## 1
Amino acid sequence: MALLDVRNLTVRFDTPDGEVQAVSDLSFTMEKGECLGIVGESGSGKSQTFMAAMGLLADNGRATGDVLFGGANLLTAGEKQLNAIRGNKAAMVFQDHMTSLTPHMKVGRQMAEVLVRHRGLSAAAARDAAIAMLKRVQIPDPERRAAMYPHELSGGLRQRVMIAMSLLCHPELLIADEPTTALDVTVQALILDLIREVKEQDRTSVILITHDLGVVAGLADRVAVMYAGRIVELGDVAQIFAAPQHPYTQGLLACTPRLDDVGKVLKTISGQPPNLQRLPPGCAFAPRCPFKIAACAERPPLRPAAGGGLKACARDDIASINRAAS
């Protein structure tokens, strides 16, 4: 049985300008110990998919469908059941490392609270375990850092504190939302090594939400490419990078800077992502797609691709066009 089974998830938001459908009929599964990369432009629905799964949508949001985890449907679970899962069996590292920590509480106390609540440890035992976890994520002088407030730490240290906090209860699932945003390259490498270590040593399943395809290439086992609230391609990481089956995936990879492309003009995807209040009929990517055909006027289902994996595209020859162009 899959560790996480998402079925027909749709997320909507009520706004003064009308309803916004941020995620549309999304389905996928992931297995124990797997790392699934979720990639796509800003506004593609990556973060809202998992905010909905964890019961953390804003007040104006609502989700339908099923998110099955550990025998529970997270979308229909009550607050008490969700609180027993969040931070315990499933944990999320948010991309804003400043506002995700309580500003008026010292770091050690925030971390100890997790163990007191979920594992019933005494305050002293919880504090010792928190300091041990800070050591594991390579925070120097952890006893002193535990006595600090979040604003006294650098961005890289705050991000490592959040990862440490998420790992305290040894969760089965870790959701990392843009874990390396706005960090320098050395800190990025450290954080990615920590996530890799957790996946390999603890057999923790990892969902890696990012716009950085290089991060995905180095960590993920499979990749889900999202556009306008839908998965448009899903497959093994090697297959996705070697022979992308969807024009949007092909465009994303073409936009990625390469060390051997010195002096070349960086490619872009023409146009802009669609307005989620007024999605175009048929394929949402068609207005930007250089390969569109008449069949793109119908919304394509996510179906098996000739080269492996799944794709939501009316054409079967995108991979061969990509090879010919290269």
## 2
Amino acid sequence: MQGITRREWLSGAAALAMIMGVGGVRSVAAKTGESAVAPLVSREWLKARLDKPGIVILDVTSPRFYARGHIPGAVFTAYDDWRTEINGVPGVMLPPEKLAAMIGALGIGNEDHVIVVPAGFSSGDVGMATRVYWSLKTMGHKAVSMLAGGMRGWMAAKGFPLEKGSRKPQAKRFEPRYTEAWLAKAADVEEALKTKAVQLIDNRPVGQHKGVFKSGSVKRYGTIPGAINVPEDWLAHKGKLLTRAQAARLHELLGVKPGAAIHFCNTGHRASLGWFVRSEMLGEPSKLYDGSLAEWTRLDPATHPVVAALDIHAIKG
């Protein structure tokens, strides 16, 4: 592999930074939950383990930026490969058997510790990493972490190496241990609406939550009744994750209480960041509604309602 200078990488990242916005990055302390593996690891932690066996680094930036310069040993994975369309609903997780085959092809075995690396420039790209993280957890892979700060953080200090070009992983057998511990389905949301025992958290932007705008993947304006809005970009503004204390305080101020919650958005992308912060950083029982509003708004409106606080689209003319 050829080396690459910090100047070369950063100059190549400039265009992406202009689109996404560049923010500072810092490591965030987090609960480790049931696993001895921390959900967030620092660049120092990873640098010290670059040559260690059993570490698989997944780069989820873009093909162009990966080729320009990536963490030594990192394997690129295209974000869109982790999601598909099922029954007209876009962005849902691949069937477990297909996802297991893809994971194995990336060189990941059941005993490997996977480090997912985002670009680190925006909440959107951090959400790509958290969605991959959630997918691995749902496939029963406990040893998974995200690199705090991503590539932005890696490049922010001297002495952190890069390599150019691509790396072909050596395929391994990955045995899926599929679990729904962190996965919510439409029936779970229906039950939450009936019993009010589980909080619903909408991680979309305020305008979409209020019903002023909507994603093209969603059929109706508004949100699920009673959902609390915790915008994803407030959790990792310009790619900078809140600290655990800040995240806890934000949820409290927005009216989210301790206890079980289901996160949703349009297609489960933004909500994966909301889920990561609340489940992995704050240690609260949380699930991600994979189909989110892309599925919910395709179901019977009588039993799958949405409400728009700012119902401007009901006006004719």
